Amino acid sequence: MTRAGRTRASRSRCLLQTRRPEILARLPADAGQLAGVGFGRDGDGGPRRLHPAAVWHLAFPQEVLNQWASRNPLRRRQPSWPVNAGSGRQHLTSGFLDQTCPACGQRLHRLLRLDPVPAGLGITSRERVEFAWCPLCGTFPGAGYARHAPDGTPEPLVDRPRGERGREPEPAEDWFIPQTPVELVRLDDRWRRQDWALSNDRENPHRAGGEPTWIQDARYPACPGCTRTMSAAGQIAIADLWDAEGICYLLWCDPCAISDVIYQQT
To answer: Which residue has the higher pLDDT, 11 or 166?
Structure first.
């Protein structure tokens, strides 16, 4: 690439990082470049934001924060970790649902229960939503899709019958922290976007709304119901809930009431 070409490419990347729709609409950006800044293409070719502008961080009980800070001292007094004081609406994370994975029989692990769903998250077809996944099958392609009943309960959409891989249910309940109440808290604009490499083991990556803190490449799947690109609804750092690493990203198609859970790790 010539020097002039490198300059044009650098300017284009800088304009992409503005994340301003009126600028993105004028750039000849491909789908991957747009997804990297949280946008897709509408039917008319214009940019569509793939995540809500509103961001809430999850506030955990003080005893849970103390436990995590004992392993990750850089979190102590870090301003992106608000404390759940029990004064607001109590949502839930972790714990297990009564539903089982149709592929392996394991009980589904709760990632985040929003009850009720906050306004501005892009979820309007359900007043309550339970995001859950199978920790044994969650890394298989397509295993994270679920259709949500009118009360928000997920019904997994798995394209392979139970036992196809010969896997028996394991006592995964022993791996995770118990069901934990959380609050949704608005922090200042400094924490609207976070970088995984910079925030890992320091900042609070547990969020509802906002642009995902992608560990790998940005990934916005097509809804299996209508094929429209799904939007991000939040993320939960599995490393805090059990002895693992990575983030579970929560995706949503509002017309179909279908969610997807995408797991990424380093």
So the answer is: 11
Q: Please state, in angstroms and rounded to a whole number, the distance separating the CA atoms of residues 195 and 57.
A: 15
Closest among 96, 175, 197, 108 to 205, alpha carbons compared = 197
Q: Is 147 exposed, middle or buried (0-12, 13-18, 19+ CB in 10 A)?
A: middle
| Count of CB atoms situated within 10 Å of the CB of 255 | 11
Looking up tokens 């002895």, which residue turns up?
243
> Between vectors from CA 219 to CA 126 and to CA 195, what angle results, nearest 5°?
100
pLDDT, tens digit (0-9, with 9 covering 90-100), for 189-212: 999 999 999 888 999 999 999 999
What is the rounded CA–CA span in Å between residue 60 and residue 142? 30
- Say how far apart CA 196 and CA 157 lie, in whole Å: 29
Taking the model in full, what pTM does it have? 0.92
